[in-house]
Design a protein that fits this description.
single chain; 403 residues; alpha+beta; 6-stranded mixed beta barrel; 10 strands; elongated
């Protein structure tokens, strides 16, 4: 019996194929939008987490100045750090495995006829260990190069490609502004981050060489701290804050003139913001499902009016009211499920395109797909019930008189 009802419903739907398609278009758009938004949002969250984790496990970032609008932004009035501060943190805080200085300046790198504007950063080998960023071609800095400030450099993959293509740059000499620098290595490629920056667009050189030959001062803009395995980053953060307050002679009633950020906290904050935005956009997209449901109810009411005489004949020859109700209810549900299937296909396609354009992982969630499909079925039942009940309650005699 049920299969016969479904067959009649499908036949009635395809009898007016264009009208049926336009009817389910709202469901298609709603389901597709929700799936696309949630899938891309989840991919963005995973990308944010991966980007922060790429800085290294259990990493703290210390910068002078109170935190302003953006994560880690600092005040220009705060006293900068120096290399002694880095060594003092390593010696005084037992939870710290290592710490590394970092400073940066935008310069143009030149090799032969090629030139490329990039970020030149001064650091030492401890930075590569703290952020788990290995040198895959050539070698890291030697101890004598770090002590003497010899102008040698390690290239990010983007800079290497822009200046040398895919050839080996180790042993070549590039110019950074007016400074000649010998290339000793190439870093492992990390790719684009969710913050919109290319992590491989960088040239690394020894901190002392950067300070003397480029920055012209002994300042350290950022200190990256790697916490020992098994140690609490929260405990390490408190110890570092107490230590820096003492080193910088900050009184009990005075605010810190530095900020210590846990990378896991940064990941959690960014993921939370991303989830809220995804939820809001998905809620807006879900309104299309409501509109689609109203469209289904409208078209089913029109269908009942058009088929009043047909309904009267069925009732007159012995069809029960519940059978008529079931026929029209099944038509509404089939329309909704058809829209749900098309919406799922369209949503996953849009999500794949969006993930590729935004360079985030494509991570479809089967639960979200099932929920969207189930919700489309619920829409069919809810909005199809009233037209179906109206059809079932028609008086056969009055229905047969209908022209």
């Amino acid at each position: 019996m049920i299969w016969e009802t479904v067959r009649l419903a499908v036949k009635a739907i395809f009898r007016n194929a264009l009208r049926s398609f336009l009817t389910v278009l709202g469901i298609v758009i709603g389901v597709a939008a929700v799936i696309a938004m949630v899938t891309v949002g989840q991919g963005s969250s995973k990308q944010v987490t991966a980007d922060v984790e790429s800085l290294g496990a259990n990493v703290l970032m210390i910068r002078p100045g109170r935190r302003a609008m953006g994560p880690g932004s600092s005040s220009a009035q705060a006293r900068p750090f120096d290399l002694k501060d880095v060594d003092h943190i390593i010696e005084a805080v037992p939870e710290v495995e290592t710490a590394a200085p970092l400073g940066g300046r935008s310069l143009t790198a030149v090799y032969g006829n090629e030139n490329y504007a990039t970020q030149v950063q001064g650091t030492d080998n401890r930075y590569f260990h703290a952020t788990d960023w290995p040198v895959v071609m050539g070698r890291p800095f030697t101890a004598s190069e770090e002590r003497s400030g010899r102008p040698v450099c390690i290239l990010g993959e983007t800079v290497r490609t822009e200046l040398f293509g895919y050839s080996d740059p180790v042993g070549e000499t590039i110019r950074l502004g007016t400074l000649s620098c010998d290339v000793v290595g190439v870093l492992e490629a990390k790719g684009a981050s969710s913050f919109g920056t290319d992590q491989d667009d960088v040239v690394m050189m020894p901190m002392r060489a950067f300070q003397r030959r480029i920055a012209g001062n002994t300042n350290v803009a950022t200190i990256f701290v790697s916490v020992r395995d098994g140690a609490s980053t929260d405990d390490a953060k408190l110890e570092i804050e107490y230590l820096l307050r003492d080193m910088r002679r900050i009184g009990p009633e005075e605010e810190d003139d530095f900020n210590v950020m846990d990378m896991k906290q940064l990941a959690s904050m960014l993921t939370g913001i991303n989830d809220v935005l995804t939820g809001l956009l998905s809620a807006v997209a879900a309104v299309s499902l409501l509109v689609g449901g109203i469209g289904i109810m409208n078209i089913m009411l029109v269908s009942v009016t058009e088929r009043t005489r047909e309904i009267g004949i069925r009732l007159a020859v012995g069809a029960q009211a519940r059978q008529v109700l079931m026929q029209f209810l099944v038509e509404a549900v089939v329309l909704s499920l058809l829209g749900g299937v098309l919406g799922i296909a369209l949503g996953l396609a849009l999500a794949a395109v969006g993930a590729n354009m935004l360079s985030v992982p494509f991570t479809p969630d089967p639960l979200v797909v099932l929920m969207a499909f189930g919700f489309s079925a619920v829409v069919g039942v809810v909005f199809g019930f009233f037209p179906a009940r109206r059809a079932a309650r028609l008086d056969p005699i009055e229905a047969l008189r209908h022209q």
